[in-house]
Amino acid sequence: MSNIISNLFMENSQFVLIGLTGRTGSGCTSAANILESQYADIPEEHQINEFYNGLDLKRYLITKNFISEHWNKFFSIKVSDLISGYILLKDEKEVEKFIISSASRNNKNISQDKVNDFLKSRKFNKSLIKSGKMINTGVEINEEEINHYDNILNIIMNHDLDINTVDINNAIFVKFLEYIRRFTSNFKNGLNKLEQGLYVSVYQDAGNSIRKTGGISSTYEEDSFSPKSVFHLPESINRIIKLLRKNEDKTFIVIDAIRNPYEVKFFRDRYSAFNLISINAPDKDRKRYLQNVHKFTNDQLGDLDERESGIKLNKNTSEENAVEGIKDKMQKDKYFEFISQNVKRCIEISDIHLFNPRNELENNNILKAQLVWYIALMQHPGLITPTAMERVMQIAFTAKLNSGCLSRQVGAVLTDCNNSVKAIGWNDVAKGQVPCSLRSLDGVINDFDDSTYSEFEQNDHDFRTKAKKKLIIFKNKEVSIKGYNLSYCFKSLKNSIDGDRNQVHTRALHAEENAFLQISKYGGVGIEGGVLYTTASPCELCAKKAYQIGVKDIVFIDPYPGIAISHILSIGNSKPNLIQFRGAIGRAYHKLYEQIMPYKDELEFLSGNE
Question: Which of 47, 53, 117, 539 shows the greatest Cβ crowding within 10 Å of its Cβ?
Fold first, then answer.
């Protein structure tokens, strides 16, 4: 009977695939290093400083006991190492051009001579080891190994080759991954000696180039976009996953780190075992870490956050929000959404959110404790029940699906101090009006339905002219949008006419605002001292309202809150506590917490009792 139970849990215990995401400096690499450990380093109760307490501490102790008996070392696939592989396929001159173009693109002034000297001093070559030793490591490698490593690199990058027909010695393959990681480390140090922060710029541009063209190109911004290239990098990672699984019965893999949301989709479509984990650190601690350890300046931190948050994307690619003077740049960057990093979006769509305080440089116990919790659940779903924070945020997550907003769906829940739900809201139009997703350009031009379209929309000449032009553009693409409802965002259309980015023209109430109004509309107990849960983070207006009604805690997911936290919620003598959400959400909530079979029955079968 125990064999039957083992088979039920076989897939969970034999294959685990994790993708890490998070802002630079939040701790993705720390998490990967923890998972790579040969032996479990599980924090004791006194080492996590009451991070878990009450019932959550009891839940933690159960997962701790489980993992102590079922720990399995993870293979770490670092995206930066894969990017190094693409770089190593290029000759020295091409790499030199790419470094110089990336430096120029990011306002860094580096001479060609310095780059040339750097590459020659590092014995850089298109082969990993043509010189007979790993670049700047002193590791001697024989001729047979040289051929093996060159062959492995080509197998990973040549997607026309059927990976199922490839047979590679596992020890040599793992050694290859170790060597290419050493190359990345040395190359990173060399780039940063040329100028601090250059490594980040070069590797981010390299990722953009791969997603646009399928390889490294110094002129990638001007090169033609190949749609298949969006998935070139994750397919290379996927080939490594397949090679590891061919040679290991039990394979646990962590990808460090995924920063493009379409790459998340790639792995979700292929692996039911895949979970995306976001690592979130307090902004002050994260910035202090980057400044003290990696010597980032304030300007470099600002540029990094802008790159990773999708701000450049929002500024440059939305035609309706464009103002005079940036149309040419928009045309040039029209594929930016597909090829660039967008860590903000990756965090939004993560399955599991972990909190990493980063307030003590070498203390990772809180991060370790959370990893223990969720790795245990990946191997044995339903081992414990969800936390109160997870339970309420899951309600907010479900509520957001009611939103008819075309840009972003947000859910919010108001509870009392005991996490008893008192109101639920989502961003949408006022009750009695038609949501944006159910209106259309065809309707506003032709229907004249005053219950669906406003007097302004039916009569304003400039608005209707703009709407007709947009409808014509859609109609000209009739084949690709056949069957679609041609919805439109009123705010975006109005702002494109005014040459503005005014938020006041939105038709929708915010999710938090909607939840607040449910209390006043339908009555109920006061929620002073209660908790606001939001799948995003409150804007300045909603933050003021939360402050006014006496919310004690605000639990949020989105780590890019604008100035609401630093300006509205950080002053006064009754300011709310701001708490970054931690836990499983969405599909992962069900996948991790739903029992495969009743736990009582499982124990009875395993023990041999009737």
Answer: 539
- The 10 Å Cβ neighbour count of residue 21 is 28
Label residue 572 exposed, middle or buried (CB < 10 Å: 0-12, 13-18, 19+). exposed
Helix (H, G, I), strand (E, B), or coil: what is residue 349?
Answer: coil
Which two structure tokens, joined as six digits, stand for 544?
A: 């003021």
Q: Is residue 168 part of a domain?
A: yes
Spatial distance between the Cα atoms of 394 and 391, rounded to a whole number of angstroms: 5
Q: pLDDT tens for residues 265-304?
A: 999 999 999 999 999 998 888 888 888 887 888 888 888 8
- Assess whether 351 and 457 both reside in one domain: no
Identity (one letter) of the amino acid at 606?
Answer: L
Q: Are 417 and 460 members of one domain?
A: no
Q: Are residues 316 and 270 in the same domain?
A: yes
6-18 CB burial, b ≥16 within 10 A, e <16: eeeeeebebbbbb
265 and 201 together in one domain: yes
Q: Are residues 478 and 556 in the same domain?
A: no
- Record the pTM: 0.89
Question: Hey, how many other C-beta atoms are within 10 angstroms of the C-beta on 483?
Answer: 4
Q: Do 394 and 356 share a structural domain?
A: no
Query: What whole-number distance in Å separates Cα of residue 497 and Cα of residue 321?
Result: 9
What is the token pair recorded at 536? Answer: 């995003």
- Tell me if 354 is assigned to some domain: yes
What is the CATH number for 523? 3.40.140.10
To 5 degrees, how large is the angle CA 235–CA 281–CA 388? 95
- Match 């070069």 to its residue by tokens: 202
pLDDT tens profile 190-237: 898 898 889 989 999 999 999 999 999 999 999 999 999 999 999 999
Please indicate, yes or no, if residue 71 is contained in any of the structural domains: no
CA nearest 169: which of 159, 182, 155, 158? 155
Tell which residue, 30, 35, 79, has the closest CA to residue 343.
79
Summarize pLDDT for 233-254 with one digit per residue, the tens: 999 999 999 999 987 889 999 9
Q: What is the DSSP letter of 551?
A: -
For 15-38, what is each residue's pLDDT tens digit? 999 999 999 899 999 999 999 999
For 39, 389, 584, the CA distances from 32, given in Å and listed in that order, are 14, 25, 19
Q: How many domains, in total, are found in the chain?
A: 3
Q: Per residue in 564-609, pLDDT tens?
A: 667 777 777 788 888 889 999 999 999 999 998 888 888 888 877 6
Instruction: Count the neighbouring beta carbons within 10 Å of the beta carbon of residue 221.
Output: 16
Which burial class, exposed, middle or buried, applies to 391 when counting CB atoms under 10 A from its CB (0-12, 13-18, 19+)? middle
Helical pair 232-247 and 261-270, crossing angle rounded to 10 deg: 40
Which of 450, 470, 505 is the endpoint of a domain? 505
For residue 245, being part of any structural domain is answered with yes
545: containing domain:
388-427+510-591
Give residue-wise pLDDT tens across range 383-430: 999 999 999 999 999 999 999 999 999 999 999 999 999 999 999 999
Q: Is the dihedral of CA 563, 397, 316, 310 positive or negative?
A: positive
Claim to verify: residue 396 and residue 479 sit in the same structural domain: no
